[in-house]
TrEMBL record:
Residues that span the membrane, as ranges: none
Pfam families cross-referenced by the UniProt entry: MreC
Name of the protein: Cell shape-determining protein MreC
Coiled coil: 54-91
One GO CC term on file: plasma membrane
BP term (GO), one: regulation of cell shape
Keyword field: Cell shape, Coiled coil
InterPro entries associated with the record: Cell/Rod_1, Cell/Rod_MreC_2, MreC, MreC_beta-barrel_core
Family to which this protein belongs: Belongs to the MreC family.
Rod shape-determining protein MreC beta-barrel core domain: residues covered: 114-261
Length: 264
């Protein structure tokens, strides 16, 4: 109440200009302080705006970083789709321009990703990301282009196990397309390192560099799928038959995408 009365009294004095002579000296004394307080208020306001803008920019930066990560993800997906389209186009063009296309005209073909098989220390099998739900069956052929990769040995709901042609468990009826009489034999893997063509009659013609393909006579593989190229030929005198070591056309340990040919 006292402060109200004092304030009222000062107001009356100011109204009747009793304090007019004191206004100049008071203003002179308090002007620097007033300017300082004004500048301080402006600095506080500018600082508050600055920090608010920083916080806003930080939020925008986080949002932009999230958008960049989303764009990177989209780019990776597009690259994967582009790679799949390229591989599929090559596979289809090879099929249409070769005997493989006519032999598989009524068969289904689908692309699959190779997932590897860390449990197989012999490196003679791989797992694919396609299984029973996608229509994969046991004995389906696995190829890249016109070259044989292996055969489906076991099928699960969403996965399938492929035995590679470099496995000793895979035997293939093959023939030499470069020989005049189309020399035939049986090939099997040499524990993941190579493929060996066996049961070649001594008088049968076969040379280093010849191309070996599936004959289809075993009923397990489509005919004319590339198996390998003859690296060397061996014949033991005490044995009646010859054998040949083949270099596979496809480095099966480096393949990432393959095609499954349905045999049914």
């Amino acid at each position: 109440m006292k402060f109200v009365l004092v304030s009222f009294f000062v107001l009356i004095l100011g109204f009747i200009k009793v304090l007019e002579p004191l206004r100049g000296p008071v203003q002179y004394l308090f002007t620097p302080m007033q300017l300082g307080l004004s500048e301080m208020a402006l600095e506080i306001r500018d600082s508050a705006i600055f920090y608010l803008n920083i916080n806003d920019l930080r939020g925008q930066n986080i949002h932009l970083m999230e958008e960049v990560e989303d764009l990177k993800s989209v780019i990776l997906e597009l690259k994967e789709i582009q790679e799949e389209n390229t591989v599929l186009k090559e596979q289809l063009s090879i099929g249409e321009s070769s005997g493989l296309g006519s032999s598989t005209r009524d068969k289904t073909i689908q692309m699959a990703n190779v997932l590897g098989n860390p449990t197989d220390l012999s490196e003679t099998s791989v797992i694919l990301d396609k299984g029973r739900r996608q229509g994969v069956s046991e004995r389906d052929n696995v190829v890249v282009g016109r070259f044989l990769v292996g055969i489906i040995e076991e099928v699960f709901e969403e996965r399938s196990l492929v035995k590679l042609l470099t496995s000793p468990d895979v035997s293939i009826a093959v023939m030499d397309v470069d020989s005049a009489n189309k020399t035939e034999g049986i090939s099997s893997g040499d524990y993941g390192t190579a493929v060996v063509m066996k049961r070649i009659l001594p008088n049968e013609e076969i040379r280093v560099g010849d191309y070996i393909v599936t004959s289809g006579k075993d009923g397990k593989f489509f005919p004319f799928l590339g198996v390998g190229r003859v690296r060397e030929i061996s014949q033991v005198e005490v044995e009646p038959l010859k054998s040949a070591v083949l270099d596979t056309f496809v480095n099966v340990s480096k393949v990432r995408k393959v095609f499954i040919l349905n045999m049914k």
